[in-house]
Specification:
about 280 residues, mainly alpha, two-stranded parallel ribbon, 2 strands
């Protein structure tokens, strides 16, 4: 069996997986996500914008998407559903592993995992921005629709003062999506590790339950919320309401995600040396 790392073999594995993924009918789930984003974020923002006669910053819509408790439950669900076959196993997987080598195969899967997540987030960002073109601007400053809305308005729930009092929209956008990317990547990594042990279904439900419980703790502002990874992915809860002080620094959350990802990928590379196709299929020895 080929044990050498081959960029060509890694690229072949990635390309094969990506084409199969992007053409899978499950991708229609993304349409459901677009509809939910429109109902939860875009329509309330547009109504407030029209009512005040003021445009919003285009970045505010995508920032709201990345910081919405409801969407942070829905986005991982949609992503894990469209990644349900990851890593994909078919009748010829054993022979494919023999030809490419286990290390090349798993590294190709990791490249696919990262690129597919970037594709997913780019789709969310672009599909959101396109719908705000008629009532938005792109200057790096918060709109009056955000800063002048009262606490009873929908805008305050979408972008609370914890966020707009602390940083500019572009900075909030960059950090929000870095946290979201690292969180979703950690969810996908958990599924990859679970697949190696034939525990994918169990891990899926553990991940989804932990997200739901974490969001509930975030809603009630319990100190236990920091036990759950999803809490670290929500930028606005890292800050106090009025003062430029952290409840927890977002850079600590980024560091935590970074450590989890490094450890997780080291474990994947270690256990991939004895990869078992039957376990990848979910069968137990």
């Amino acid at each position: 069996m080929n044990r050498k790392i081959s960029p060509r073999q890694i690229t072949c594995v990635f390309r094969r997986e990506y084409i199969e993924w992007i053409t899978n009918p499950r991708m229609l789930m993304c349409v459901v996500l677009v509809v939910m984003v429109r109902e939860i974020v875009l329509l309330p923002m547009r109504n407030l914008s029209m009512g005040m006669g003021q445009p919003i910053n285009a970045m505010e819509s995508v920032i709201a998407v990345a910081n919405s408790g409801v969407l942070l439950l829905l986005m991982p669900l949609v992503y894990l559903v469209i990644m349900a076959d990851f890593p994909r196993v078919s009748g010829n997987t054993y022979f494919y592993l023999t030809r490419t080598g286990r290390i090349n195969w798993i590294m190709g899967q990791i490249v696919f995992q990262i690129v597919s997540l970037l594709t997913y987030l780019l789709f969310v960002i672009i599909s959101t921005l396109v719908q705000t073109v008629s009532f938005s601007f792109l200057i790096n400053g918060w709109s009056l629709v955000v800063t002048e809305s009262d606490k009873s308005s929908a805008m305050y729930d979408l972008i609370p003062m914890n966020l707009y009092n602390q940083m500019s929209p572009y900075e909030a956008f960059a950090i929000s999506y870095l946290l979201l990317f690292m969180f979703l990547l950690s969810c996908s990594l958990a599924m990859l590790l679970a697949s190696i042990y034939g525990k994918k279904t169990l891990t899926f439900w553990v991940v989804m339950i932990s997200i739901a419980v974490g969001i509930v703790f975030c809603a009630v502002k319990s100190k236990w919320m920091w036990v759950f990874p999803v809490s670290h992915s929500i930028l606005w809860i890292h800050f106090q309401n009025y003062y430029r002080k952290y409840v927890m620094s977002p850079w600590i959350s980024i560091l935590i995600f970074g450590v989890l990802l490094v450890v997780g990928y080291l474990l994947v590379m270690h256990f991939s040396k004895k990869l078992n196709v039957d376990r990848l299929r979910g069968e137990q020895e």
